[in-house]
Specification:
2 helices, four-stranded antiparallel sheet, Alpha-Beta Plaits, about 90 residues, alpha+beta
């Protein structure tokens, strides 16, 4: 599945979430990640985040789609990072 993940974490936990998300998805912008991910990998990511997340203060928002082709992306201004992976 194709996922756009947006998070808002407290200052003390934001670095941990950034590091965790980089293991699974491509960094697009501050607190925004996107990419192809399996259901199992997404579950792993969310379970790992819940270990240090404070649910009364922090949040994660997921936008899910079948694949990237079902979403149209428009960037206005500078693109933070390339989402393409070169091998």
């Amino acid at each position: 599945m194709y996922v756009i993940l947006v998070y808002d974490f407290g200052e003390k936990r934001v670095g941990k979430m950034l590091k965790l998300c980089r293991k699974y998805l491509c960094w697009v912008q501050n607190s925004v990640f996107e990419g192809e991910i399996s259901a199992v990998q997404l579950k792993e990511l969310l379970m790992s985040a819940e270990r240090f997340m404070k649910k009364e203060e922090d949040s994660i928002i997921l936008f899910k789609g079948r694949d990237k082709n079902w979403m149209e992306k428009e960037i206005v201004g500078r693109e933070r990072g390339e989402t393409d992976v070169f091998l």
